[in-house]
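ok so for the tutorial part 2 we go from a plain amino acid sequence to predicted structure tokens. step 1 is just haveing the sequence, like this:
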Amino acid sequence: IVLIERKNPPRGWALPGGFVDYGESLEVAATREAKEETGLELAELKQFRAYSDPVRDPRQHNISFVFTATGSGTLAGGDDALKASVFPLDALPHPLCFDHNRILDDYRQAFEDSE
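step 2 — the prediction. this is what the tokens look like for a chain of 115 residues:
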């Protein structure tokens, strides 16, 4: 799993992400944000789930649409990421920001159910 260490509050590790620009699709935003924060180009982009709990982000009510993908290129933190790293799903750093533990638990469960 690719995670970024956030440069801005709340500090800590998180899934790469960001905000959708006006006139931009979710897929284009996910691809752009991944490139900006990790240096990776995405392929095989698939929407996983949406998360909308009003308290999931301490800054404001944000809705996240989570995608899975494969990445290629040279992994490096950029934009508002101090660094980007790959972690095994069973050895994630702590703490994770926002509700990213829940997202990754859901992903782990979905992955185990598909085997």
